[in-house]
Design goal:
- 22% of the residues lie in helices and 24% in strands.
- It is built from four helices and eight strands; from the N terminus they run βαββββαβαβαβ.
- The strands form two sheets. The chain has a six-stranded parallel beta sheet. A two-stranded antiparallel ribbon has the order 3-4.
- Helix 3 runs parallel beside helix 4.
- It is globular.
- The structure holds pyrazine-2-carboxylic acid and zinc ion (ZN).
- Pyrazine-2-carboxylic acid binds next to helix 3.
């Protein structure tokens, strides 16, 4: 029997109001996410987890401001305010998130020179996090994704999951977006085209 998992993406203080890279309404999804966690067979969390001075931080690049882009060896990278620094309060899960049931917490973005939006691959789209192998080894093939942000970490995780052969649903009601330069519309379209079920 195909097993299912709920993947809760980056519900961390820095992506909630008051945080370094606050997503509008990011905290409002927590009660719904908690209900979904309670109902889920298996729960996996992701945690954005950057070292200080990470290459995705605008502050690391002289003369660059947050939300500008820079050319990296692996392609164009959006620059962000310093966020989710390993061990900081900003990197911690939202205090109301019921995370104790999680069977795995997968951390991403810990390599200084490469960012990772997706729970499956770093932004070069070829360095794996190990999540696909973990899920396959456990016989989990159906994934529901929720969390922050819809148009970055959730979307890239969903696209990679489809590419890896998983059946993927994104529960939009339990996600919130950054929406940078039309990214929400663009990534929603890409998810639809890829066969992600958006509900
Ligand atoms: C994210 C930008 C930078 C996300 C993480 O969780 O969507 N976005 N790091
Ligand atoms: Zn990040």
């Amino acid at each position: 029997m195909a097993d299912k998992a709920l993947i809760v993406i980056d519900v961390q203080n820095d992506f909630c109001p008051g945080g370094a890279l606050a997503v509008s309404g990011g905290d409002t999804i927590v009660p719904l996410v908690n209900r979904m966690i309670a109902d889920a067979g298996h729960v996996i969390l992701t945690q954005d987890w950057h070292p200080a001075g990470h290459s995705s931080f605008a502050s690391t690049h002289a003369g660059k401001n947050p939300f500008e882009t820079v050319a990296m060896p692996y392609g164009e990278q959006t620059l962000w305010p310093d966020h989710c620094i390993q061990g900081s309060q900003g990197a911690a899960f939202h205090p109301d998130l019921e995370w104790t049931k999680a069977e795995l917490v997968i951390r991403k973005g810990f390599r200084p020179s490469i960012d990772s939006y997706s729970a499956f691959y770093e932004n070069d789209h070829e360095t794996p996090t190990g999540l696909a192998g973990y899920l396959r080894e456990r016989g989990i093939s159906e994934l529901t994704m929720v969390g922050l942000a819809t148009d970055f970490c959730v979307a890239y995780s969903a696209l990679d999951a489809v590419r890896e052969g998983f059946s993927v649903t994104v529960a939009l009601e339990a996600c919130r977006a950054i929406d940078l330069g039309g990214s929400l519309v663009a990534m929603t379209q890409r998810m639809k085209e890829a066969g992600v079920s958006l509900v």
